[in-house]
Design brief:
With 229 residues, the protein is of the alpha+beta class. Helix content is 36%, strand content 17%. It is built from 7 helices and 8 strands, in the order αβαβαβαβββαββαα. Strands 7-6-1-3-2-8 form a 6-stranded mixed beta sheet, covered by helices on one side. α1 (6-27) runs antiparallel to α4. The chain starts with 5 loop residues before the first helix and ends in a 12-residue tail after the last helix.
Length: 229
């Protein structure tokens, strides 16, 4: 993947978002998540909270990044997209069930937009490597968006297409965009892994740099407790 400046990629996302908002404004179409009757099936029990399920390699890494995003209410590590009607780390790690390691993100669209969620997702992992993130190899580590409604599918497909056309990356984006079906919560020891094991080798060598990259690129989207003093 080409090493690109943060400003260039952020600029592409900003322009795409502005273009979409302009079209909606001219046509009089309201943002779907501002319409309380829209896609109630993906609403949580709490008002104005939306879920999306994302895979971007090891869920320890992705969880650690999204837990720091302002507007994200909850992040749970787990498994999705497999052929079997059950999932556990032991089963999924064989790579034979087609489950992906994912996080289920619950967010408030009044604080952070779905477009911003996608921006963070694509900027904090390599979406051009098939079934691989760094040294983590196998279909369980694939780049994937399990969309919960048509709006999420539309936005994910739109940004993927435009990012490919922009030439930001040397290679095509291989992120899978597929409908969400079932989420299996991962074992308790996988939850909040970085916070519980900050000095562990993998956390320092792999996860910490991803967090630092996120904080550098998206300082304005950091939760208050993670902002520099």
């Amino acid at each position: 993947m080409r090493t690109v400046t943060a400003l260039r990629l952020v600029f592409v996302f900003m322009m795409l978002a502005v273009m979409t908002d302009s079209v909606r404004a001219k046509s009089g179409i309201a943002h779907p998540y501002q319409n309380q009757s829209y896609s109630l099936s993906v609403k949580t029990d709490m008002a104005n909270e939306i879920q999306v399920t994302l895979g971007a390699g090891c869920f320890w890494c992705v969880e650690a990044v999204f837990k720091r995003v302002n507007g994200v209410k909850n992040v749970v590590s787990g498994y999705s997209g497999g052929r079997k009607d059950e999932a556990s780390y032991r089963i999924v790690s064989t790579g034979q069930t087609n489950h992906a390691e994912v996080i289920q993100v619950t967010f408030d669209p009044d604080i952070i937009s779905f477009d911003a969620i996608l921006q963070i997702f694509w900027r904090t992992h390599d979406p051009t490597t098939l079934n691989r993130q760094g040294a983590d190899v196998g279909p369980q580590y694939r780049s994937v968006i399990f969309y919960h409604d048509d709006y999420q599918r539309e936005r994910a497909e739109y940004f993927k297409k435009k990012l490919d056309e922009s030439g930001i990356f040397d290679d095509p984006i291989v992120t899978e965009i597929t409908p969400f079906e079932t989420f299996y919560e991962a074992e308790e020891y996988h939850q909040n892994y970085f916070e519980r094991n900050p000095d562990q080798g993998y956390c320092q060598i792999v996860i910490r740099p991803k967090i630092d990259k996120f904080k550098k690129l998206f300082e304005e989207k950091l939760r208050e407790e993670y902002r520099p003093e």
